[in-house]
Amino acid sequence: MNFLKNDYQQQFENILMTDKNLEKLRQQIIDETDGVKFSKLIEKLKKKYASIDTSYVLDILTDYAKHGQILHWRNFLLPDIIKLVGDSETEYITFFEWCITQPELIYWGIDGLLKTQGKECFSALIELAKNESLNTPIRAKAIKSISIYSKQPFDRDLPKDPGYWKTEDLRIVEIEAWQKNGYQNGKGYAKPKTHPSLEDPKTELEKTVSKFNRKLEAKRNKNQDLSNPTNWLVIADQTDLLSIAERWNLPETYRLFLSNYSPLHVHIDSKKYFQGLHLYGASELLKRQEGYSFNPVTNQIIDEWPKNLVVIADAGADPYCIDLSQIKENDAPVYKSTHGTGVWEFELYTDSFLIFLKEIAGA
Prior knowledge:
The chain is an alpha+beta fold. The protein has two domains: 7-180, no CATH class; 196-362, SMI1/KNR4-like (3-Layer(aba) Sandwich), CATH 3.40.1580. Helices cover 46% and strands 10% of the residues. The chain contains 14 helices and ten strands. It has helices at residues 7-31, 35-49, 54-67, 71-76, 78-84, 93-99, 106-117, 122-130, 136-150, 172-180, 204-222, 238-247, 252-260, 353-362; strands at residues 232-234, 262-264, 266-268, 277-279, 294-295, 300-301, 309-315, 318-323, 334-336, 347-350. The strands form three sheets. A six-stranded antiparallel beta sheet has the order 3-4-7-8-9-10.
């Protein structure tokens, strides 16, 4: 005689099946020696089980970070572990304390310890920063992470990636003074100043830029470090605009764009652009002509470069240029060329800068 299973029985059987499958996957991860296959197993683990049984997935990942046989993956797993661990989940403090004693795990272990222990680990991280036996990127990482967490400007005017810091960049004396005064929170960094029309666009240019900004905002929300802000459209410095005006008579549409929505370290990732597109802002436009129309080594103008073309962006060093000889209705066409061919050959890319901007906004 057949009986329908009640909801509780079905749910219990589903849990048992999930447990069996998860345990099987765990053993596969432990046994796998091929890095590519291992990567696929980890992706499967995260995709199928991270939201269902987070603690068990964390148990698998932390155990592998300690004992796994593919050594470089022990380090690669730490960002995933940190992402899955909740803020102030104290049961993982011991694990991250162990990580910062392991040379291959220190770098990401620093962030894990901060996430779980907060300011209570400042002293331990400062000792890492002061430890001259460690390599500079590790010491710099400790300072960078402390800066972000405490909103203190120990990372001011330095590269976003602490891997590029030099030993003399480490503000040890400053950090020790901060430690002595009780680890006071700082004010952090102010957001770059943006134009009001980004939120209330009226003209075609403003609407296009507003759409572009929403795209950049999504990137900023995922990863933003205001000590080195990236992917912003900001109000340009008047000094930069005056320097540009002394050099070129730009079409009004592009001039307004630079003035009100100057790209600040804007990089567009898209299949349309080789190695992504770097769109220049007012603060870098003059310098970015180097290697195209100007040779910074000889300090001379390059005669082969057409004087009517201003490079406004590049994709893997392939220049995108606005043509000042074809200004019409306050705009001008954009031309593209390929570098490394021995001679510059330009082809029309868009009929106007506004069309170019629309393409970027929709890319």
